[in-house]
Design brief:
- The structure is a single chain.
- By secondary structure, this protein is mainly alpha-helical.
- It has helices at residues 2-8, 15-35, 41-60, 74-84.
- The relative contact order is 0.13.
- It has one domain.
- 69% of the residues lie in helices and 0% in strands.
- α2 (15-35) runs antiparallel to α3.
- The protein is elongated, with a radius of gyration of 16 Å.
């Protein structure tokens, strides 16, 4: 099902740009958490949690130009994709 949607849409950005955006997104959430630490602790904790989740997701994603920290390689992903088709 996901292949139908992704095949119909063009790729707007490359993998390197996508990875940079992911890391900036994580950093922005950590900065927001620090900014709201005293004025709104619950918002601060939520921003830290979101930043951590985005960072873990970015570290586990294989962007084709860098290796994944979680150990999933691009060739392994390609094998999984071809086995589902």
């Amino acid at each position: 099902m996901a292949g139908l949607i992704s095949d119909a849409l063009p790729k707007v950005i490359d993998a390197r740009t996508h990875s940079i955006i992911d890391y900036i997104h994580a950093a922005t959430n950590f900065v927001a958490g620090a900014m709201f630490r005293k004025s709104n602790p619950r918002a601060s904790n939520a921003a830290y949690a979101l930043g951590a989740a985005v960072l873990v997701n970015a570290l586990c994603t294989d962007y084709q130009w860098e290796s994944s920290v979680c150990g999933v390689s691009a060739s392994r992903n390609a094998g999984l994709r071809s086995s589902r088709d």
